[in-house]
Amino acid sequence: MYRPQNYGMRLLCAGVLLGWGCAYGVDAERPEEGTVDDDGLNADLAVSSVEQQLDQWWTTGPFVADQNDDIPMELDSTHVCILTKVSGRFAGGGEAVQVLRVNGRWRLRTQSLQHGVGGEAFCFRKSGFLANGSDRGVSRQFANFAFAPDGCESESVSTWLGDATTYVSGITGPWNGGCEFVKIHQAASGTAPSQLETGTGQDDEIIGGFAQSFFAGTPGAGVRAKFFNSQTFAIGSNQSIVMAATDLAMCHFTEIRGDFNGGGEWVQIRPVLDGGIEKWQLISRAVGGGGVNATARCFLRDQR
């Protein structure tokens, strides 16, 4: 288990502490450009070396949590931390993966009564983001829950305005198929709220999704958050796609969906070498079941 600052870990049940379940969403937005690689595992050789090449002043990670871990990360006064991997079997409310703030520090928490549930996270120094304004703010954790007495149904809640980026920060509950999802609808303007949507097709279990927002700039200016190529990246099962360079953007999940059956199912954002340039890669793997997929956006480091 790689820990950039050699933090220890202690056992903690995130779901019991929070009392929250899981959520899911609508059809994934397709990428406007970029090539999806159907062999999602082909970049493995590049990963082990490239993780040591990240801009360590701006980016810290990956922080890794195995089953029932509680990993301390950076201070929330200096950094914003995001969820970059979810894996394992999500069978009910006993399973959860989350990035959250506790007593001034970011933590990566996993809870599981099943096999292979884990997560990863990266942290980014707030002062490394450039903007027309000195404010660098992180929202509270948004939570949304869904159940479906009449087939696939979803619920939505508002997050911060579209002048901030909003991203998936956790999931919980039974994820058994395409009706189970958590999705961020990024607002089209800087003055309207973005939305956190969760969905499920199960009538006897609650699905939960979590999100947070990050803002860099001048509050009230109404300037829409800027993303790499103004693009949403999307992949299906066992696919990958290369996104922005790691020194240009913070790439994060905007949707996670599907059937998480065991340790063989996962979605991840990770650094890889692409033509000699270090970039973020969105990748998924599903061994069986109904498959898993994900979408991501890349919030530009320079918001000016």
Low-confidence stretches: 1-34, 39-45
Give the radius of gyration.
17 Å
Helix % is under 10%
Largest sheet: 7 strands, antiparallel
Q: How many domains make up the coordinates? A: 1
Textual characterization of the structure:
By secondary structure, this protein is mainly beta. It has one domain (about 15-300). It contains 2 helices and 19 strands. It has helices at about 15-20, 45-50, and strands at about 60-65, 70-75, 80-90, 90-100, 105-110, 120-125, 135-140, 140-145, 155-160, 165-175, 175-185, 195-200, 205-215, 235, 240-245, 250-260, 260-275, 275-285, 290-300. The strands form 3 sheets. Strands 2, 4, 5, 7, 8, 10 and 13 form a 7-stranded antiparallel β-sheet that branches. β4 (about 90-100) and β5 form a beta hairpin.
Features:
seven-stranded antiparallel β-sheet, 304 residues, single chain
Give the structure's gist in a few sentences.
Helices cover 4% and strands 53% of the residues. It is mainly beta and 304 residues long.
Indicate the topology:
Blueprint: H1 14-18, H2 44-50, E1 59-65, E2 70-75, E3 79-89, E4 91-102, E5 105-111, E6 118-125, E7 135-138, E8 142-146, E9 153-161, E10 165-174, E11 176-185, E12 193-200, E13 207-217, E14 233-235, E15 240-245, E16 249-259, E17 261-274, E18 277-285, E19 292-300
Antiparallel strand pairs: 1-6, 2-5, 3-6, 3-17, 4-5, 4-10, 7-13, 8-13, 9-12, 10-13, 11-12, 11-16, 14-19, 15-18, 16-19, 17-18
